Amino acid sequence: MSLHYTQASAGSGKTHSIENDVADKLEHDDLLPSEIIAVTFTKDAAEELKGRISQTLIGRGKLELATGVMTARIGTVHSVFGQLLSDFAFELGLSPEQRVIDDQDKKQVLAEALESSLSLTEIKSLNQLSFRLSVQDWRDDVLKIIEMMRTNAMPASEANTFAQTSIATLKCHLPNASPRVTEAEFIQTLEDAVQQADQVVKPTSGLLGAVDACQQILRQQVLTWQNWVKVSKLKPTKMGDPIFAQAMSIGLEVLKCQAFQQELSEFITLVFHAAEKAMDAFADIKNSRGLIDFVDQENLALFAIDHPVVQQRLKEEVRYLIIDEFQDTSPLQLALFSKVSELVEDVLMVGDAKQAIYGFRGSDPKLTLDVLDYVQQGGGQTNTLSNSYRSRAGLVELTNELFTAPFSHLLKSDQVKLTPNNSYSLASAELEWWTLTYEGRKSNERTLSALAEGVRSHIEAGVEVWDKKLKRPRQAKWRDLAVLCRNNVEASQLAGYCARIGIPVSLERAGLVETPEISLALACLRRLIDPSDSLASAEILTLNTGDGPEKWLQDRLAAVSAAKSWQWNNTAHPALERLASARENVGLFSIKEALNTALLAGDVAKTVCQWNEGAKLTEHRLANLAQLSNLVSDYESHCSAQFLAATPTGFILWLKNKEQCFDDKQAPNPGDAITIATYHKSKGLEWPIVICHSLDSPLKVSLFGSRITSQALPFDWQQPLRGRSLCYWPNPFPEQRGNDVLAAQLSQSLEWKNAEQQALNEAIQLLYVGITRARDQLILTAIGKEDAVGNWLQLLNSSALPPAKGLLTLSSGATLNVEKQTLVKPDVPSASTNTRARHWLAPQLQLTEIAAVDYFQPASKIPPHAQSVCTVLHDFGTRIPINGKPNMDQLGSVLHHCLALVLAKPDLDVEILNELVKAEVPGVVQGDHIFKQGLALFDWVKTRYPNAVLHTEMPIMLMLSDGGLRQGAIDLVVETDEGWIVIDHKSNPQPKSKWLDIAQEHSGQLKAYWDALEVLSNKPVISSLVHFSVSGGLVEVTA
């Protein structure tokens, strides 16, 4: 076994490196696609990797290998090893059908296990102690411990050991208990101070405030330890200092109280005890229901690889293990990869320690660095991808300048620095520095509103970005810009300010169920399955017509008076009538069919369009309706995992539960919109313009909660998890935000220094991820003053910040352009304020009557364009002979595929076409005839346009002004310096005398391609041609 680690910085061509490495091994090392295991972080990354390896092999003429790659073991950890468990189910004594529950269902089962495993006495004790220690919810702490133990392959039986270790290490930082510091003494001291203060004739406001604070504490039936710290921070003014001095003094000595130390120990013991019992109960519940979760899959795979039969089969079948995004590997996954590596010939790990930002999800950045160090010290081979293919040269040099020193204690300089590969230039500056100022008091509202105004003015000013496809500058659109925030709350607030001033925003956010379009859709579904749901009927009427209760209330009152309150006249609205007609067969419908029927019968999409709220908002509402349909599959999976019957009513209740958990995510804005995201969610993405906000965020260090600790042992690739344990310290003074006696004591410890260094590393890694998302322009924000470098940016300790306007020269000698501006937005409404007037009864909607529109409008269905003129442009003088009377649609499909292959790769082996033709239309045509016809077209194009680039089967998708969708693929698009040339293949075998008539019939299709390509590319189309692939000719079609 040989280990190979590739250090791949952001934008250095990581996926390209993997695809070439795999393609080389498949082509030259006798490696078969079936002998590969490749794991990626996401499903999309797996599909992209498969496709790119396959395309590389096709380009090399290795079609058989390219086909094999599409069925290779390439996927996420869970999909690859889940399949392995199914393959060896018989040997392992497992069911071949795994019922895998998602995270939401796992949380539900875990909560059930926790409640069922503890006695009432244990729950009562935990409740009492958590109140005394000001722990908000001990259940959350228990569940976090369980998750950390499971993802680190720690058995439940070790929980008690972890509890004792946690107690012992915490007590090392506590002073010796004093018999004079007791709760009774604390209470008596407060009572004495209050009584003495009451004797003061003219008390100051400070003294009265101290008295009131102490009386509030004394009125509590059960005191909390946090009260002691509050008393120690009293400010009774000079008059009250002598009175409250003793009380404040004893409050500072809370750590010496024997009862405090005892309760801390008891609580830690009980929390770990609860975790141990809940882990066992969780396993029992899953076993009884035949369920597993993702962590179980990894644990079972770890167990499976120890089985002799599995080991032998893997040794015979797998030779190459590839791990993409290695820095995001969890400890348990690392142990799994370690075991698999012993069974294969080669292991390739590709990652970037600088982007290890998912520690909160269970990955361990330290383990990634341990592996890298192990490989560098002789455990394997390493190489570094040294070029940046993403960003402009100035941005690459700036990144080198900012991050080489901060990462120097983790990585060598050549593992941080990149060499710019892009040489294009733009009128826009590489770096901009925006100072967000405010009038009056500093507030998040004012700074975010100023930022929103800056975004709007920046795009409207026509800033230049580089078009990667057209390879030339163009003006930036909304979708070219992203704003990164530190947390979801700030991102959501900024989205509100942007939306208020007309900026279209794409942001992943909750609130799907409460949107009016989903309210209408669910009302139609409820009315479909239950005619007595009068609330659903009222919602349908109101949202369809805009009529408030004043229009239909009298009819309802009449129905109630007639003792028919469940009835609602179906003729009240056509939607109710259509839903009534569709109800007859609702009992036979699946959930998806019931929902689709409700949407169609209720004419929901048309109603949404009639609300006339503008194209952008309407697009988003329609996307939300599609999102609702997609959730049906998630609900059905949930029912399958929980052994529940899937019903329309259950689907509605399930959605309501997701709404309460803020898990009902809306669809992203489908149109031209800026992206607002957190730094964590931006990983793996890129935009031409990136604004890094929240740069004044302070560094947060804490030892409280649960954390993994490691013994100082050398890293062992065969046992990567050895020496790891779990520590849990509750925070008894959470309201003090780290300004208390315990935090002060811990801040002097070695553990604190280690945690501070880890927090510093993670903060710099997250900042690196954000800054490297920018392709053409990076914008950094400052708050208040122009030269104010935020707390987060200060961690870089760079002399390049803040930059001066003009040409910035870096220490390497490289230069980049800097623009600076100050943004002010003094008077703003609250982001949570709705700009629409609110009424108890909604005002009548102004609906616009629209004609029904066909949603799918393919170009091939467009009628001939009357003004088109057709001219024979060229006659190749060759013809493809056709034998017999074949199915012309099938033949046309084969001809299109073959021509696409020839035009994409003119040096293609003609035998590939012969095999394809024999398989699809045997005896009808010959592959070499098609090859000659395709080559003739290629030569004609290259003769006329030597520098042209040919794009075969170019996909297009365009939203039309009437709400329809034009989607398809153009057979051949020739890209020239002057513009595009559209060529459409036609397999009609008619002679040259019929060419003009046939071309005229398809003139509407070509005009549709022409218009769509110009809109989508912002580049002109200079010609459109019909290529008669059988009879060998070209006809130009002009409008």
Topology:
Elements: E1 2-8, H1 14-28, E2 36-40, H2 43-59, H3 63-69, E3 73-76, H4 77-87, H5 89-92, E4 99-100, H6 103-117, H7 120-132, H8 138-151, H9 159-171, H10 183-197, H11 205-219, H12 226-232, H13 237-252, H14 258-289, E5 291-292, H15 294-304, H16 308-317, E6 320-323, H17 331-341, E7 346-351, H18 365-379, E8 381-385, E9 387-388, H19 393-403, E10 419-420, E11 431-437, H20 444-460, E12 464-467, E13 472-475, E14 481-485, H21 488-500, E15 505-506, H22 516-529, H23 534-545, H24 549-561, H25 574-582, H26 591-601, H27 604-610, H28 615-642, H29 648-660, E16 674-678, E17 687-692, E18 705-710, E19 724-729, H30 741-746, H31 750-771, E20 774-783, H32 791-794, E21 806-809, E22 815-824, E23 869-875, H33 888-904, H34 910-920, H35 927-944, E24 949-959, E25 965-975, E26 980-986, H36 995-1001, H37 1003-1017, E27 1021-1028, E28 1033-1038
Helix pairs in contact: 1-2, 2-3, 4-15, 6-14, 7-14, 8-14, 9-14, 10-11, 10-13, 11-13, 12-13, 15-17, 20-21, 22-23, 22-26, 26-28, 33-34, 33-35, 34-35
